[in-house]
Structure formats: C-alpha cells, structure tokens
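Consortium newsletter contribution from the modelling node. Members have asked for a concrete example of what our holo predictions look like. Here is one, prepared for the zinc ion complex that several groups have been discussing at recent meetings.
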Amino acid sequence: MADAYDRLGFVKSRLVRHGAEREHVAVPPVDAPGTGILLFAGDRVILRPGETPTALLTPDEAARRPDGPLTIFLGRFEDRPVFATALPEDAAESFPEPDFRISDLRGIAAQGAVAAEELGLLATAKSVLAWHGRNGFCSNCGTATEPKAGGFRRECPACGMHHFPRTDPVVIMLVHRGDACLIGRGPHFPGTMYSCLAGFVEPGETIEDAVRRETFEETGIAVGSVRYRASQPWPFPSSLMIGCVAEATTEVITRDPLELAEARWVSRAELRTMFDACHPEGITAPQPLAIAHLLLRDFLDGTV
Ligand SMILES: [Zn+2]
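And here is the predicted structure:
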C-alpha cells in the first residue's frame, strides 16, 4: 500500500513549468498535434474516461469548446505542451457521456480519477485560471489588465504594473501533548469529520508564529516548539497548506466559537477508532487526500 504521503492530493506534478519558454520564446500553438488541453466548465473538469482516464484532452476533443475564453500555457507535461481554459459552466453540455465525464476537482482527487501526477497539473491550472477570473483590473489604478507570459502574469497598459498569480500560505498543525493530540471541527465541516487546526499566515509572520497564534486564538492552547513536516497545494482557490507538528505547553481548551464548533484532545487509541470508523460518537478523520490525514497518521504511528 502506498504510504500516507503518496496518497496526498495535488503534491505530485510532472509539469515542467518552462518559465523561460513563456517569457522569451513564442508560446506553442494550442492546436498542434500532441498538445494537451485542460478544460474547466465552471468548477468542474472535463475528463476523457476509459482505461486510463485523463483530463489532458487532444486539440480535436477540445475543439468542441466555445471560442473566446482565455487559454493559458502551463508548460510541458511528458514533453507535451499543456494549456488550460476556463469555460462557462454550461459548456459542459458540449462534452456529453460516454465520450466525456465531468467531475469537480475534489472528487477527482478523492477518487483517484486521474493519475496523481496529473492532479498537480490540474491544481496549477485551477489556481491560475481562478486568479485571472478575479484580477481583470489593475489593483494600482483600476485599468483593465492584459494576460502575458502564457497567462502567468497580467500587465497594466496604463501604469505598467505587473501582477502575478498569488499563493496563500496556510499553516495546518498537529498539536500534541503526551499521548493526546488536539483536533477541532469548523462550523462548516462536512458530516462527522474532525481535523487539525489551521489558519492563514499573516503578513510579516513566520510559519512558527502563525502556528502558535492560530492555535492560541482558536483554542487558548499555548504552543512551544514547532517543526515543519510537509506541504500541499490546495487549489480552492490558491492555498499552500504548510503542515507542521507543534508541542502544546498547556491543556485547558478555551474555544473560539466563531472559528470552531468543537475542539478536544484525543488519545492515540481514540484517534485509531476515528481512522477505523468505529469511534463511539461516530466522529471521523479527514480523507487521505488531505494533509491533516498525514499529520494525524504520523501521530497515530508514533513518528511524531
Ligand atoms: Zn495600473
């Protein structure tokens, strides 16, 4: 069985980004044979089902898409030029079953519906396309901006400002003390799931201090040492989850009700029942595609 890291979504990508190619060489033609084209219809991805399902459509298959929407050049995947386009939601109608299948990116990741290396590619495409959708105007002077560098930059024709796709750092932490770890449940969490605490890094803040601040704000628990474990792109729309392991120095929980509906300490034995879906209260662990699963699994396995 693949280890927990191998089952994380979006961490593998064979995309060769070709920053130099975007910048100094003409972007290859989108309809050349061998090109791969990723199509998003609203939030959903158009897939070609079959023995090896893929989101990398051929130019012939992608020709069903309506003209007009911005196409970005991502780079090369297994030496094929790869492009991505965000279409309106109703464009999905042009890609009917059984030749095509439509699925949202979370579902594709959870089901392993495409190769893991293709998930990373889809994460890049989704984040960059979402950024274009929200950044049509210059934040400096308000003029309409123009896509450049294959879609990895927008430029303002009035004031000359360059704008780049953003990545939002989020700390997510396994907070532990002795044989227990701290888990919580956000007000909007699905079903019965509990997870690690998490929060956005603020400007001018270290990762370690963000872990300490978020943990204290949400639960009143003080944290001492913090160490980095692994990171995960989370393209909803553009987060980078920074997984950390943190040692608590206090135990009394004072929950912030706006941030968390529940927070509690669980022992390794209790966490085991959550992973095995036999917890007496029916609470469950996050899915293997999420980095919180990896962090909690580390704790369970005693590697923390
Ligand atoms: Zn401007």
